[in-house]
Amino acid sequence: MKDSIGNHVDHLTQDTTEAVQKSLEYYKLTLLKKSAISLLIGSQFVIKVGIITLTLFFISIGFAFLIGNQLGTVSYGFFIVGGFYLLLLLIMSLFGKTLLEKPIFKLLNKVLYSNSTLEDEFKSELSKTKSSES
């Protein structure tokens, strides 16, 4: 009787240890999945913002020269384009928080609470990228 109780206690501690280890492995894999998806989405975002910034930069220079040539002095064109960006900055300072909060929270919610596999997430992100490039 004493021997069987000792065996049950040994099995109980061994089963508990295994359950804790499996739980830790699950959470490590979940963390890896969320980190990989976040890194993928973040890097795509950085690349897109960089390309948009360069495009906007060259378009702004073009408009500044175009406006400046129409007004007779190129510097006036740069002042007008600069004023436009100052106005845009003022508008974003006043209303930008409400415009950006909702999409960012939706994206984070999608990444953090998704139940699909890592491979499914990668495939969906790659298909979105390919379809936006076409």
Short overview:
The chain has 134 residues and is mostly helical. The protein is 93% helix and 0% strand.
Plain-language structure description:
By secondary structure, the protein is mostly helical. The protein has one domain. 93% of the residues lie in helices and 0% in strands. It has three helices and no strands. The chain has helices at 2-71, 74-112, 118-133. Helix 1 (2-71) packs antiparallel against helix 2 and helix 1 runs parallel beside helix 3 (118-133). It starts with a helix and ends with a helix.
Supply the key terms.
single chain; 134 residues; mainly alpha; 3 helices; rod-shaped
- Rg calc: 28 Å
Strand content: under 5%
| Number of helices in the DSSP assignment | 3
What is the distance, rounded to the nearest whole angstrom, between the alpha carbons of the first and last residues? Answer: 74 Å
Q: Helix content range of the residues, please?
A: over 70%
Strands, total number: 0
Biggest sheet architecture: none
Total tally of structural domains: 1
Shape: rod-shaped
What order do the helices and strands follow?
HHH
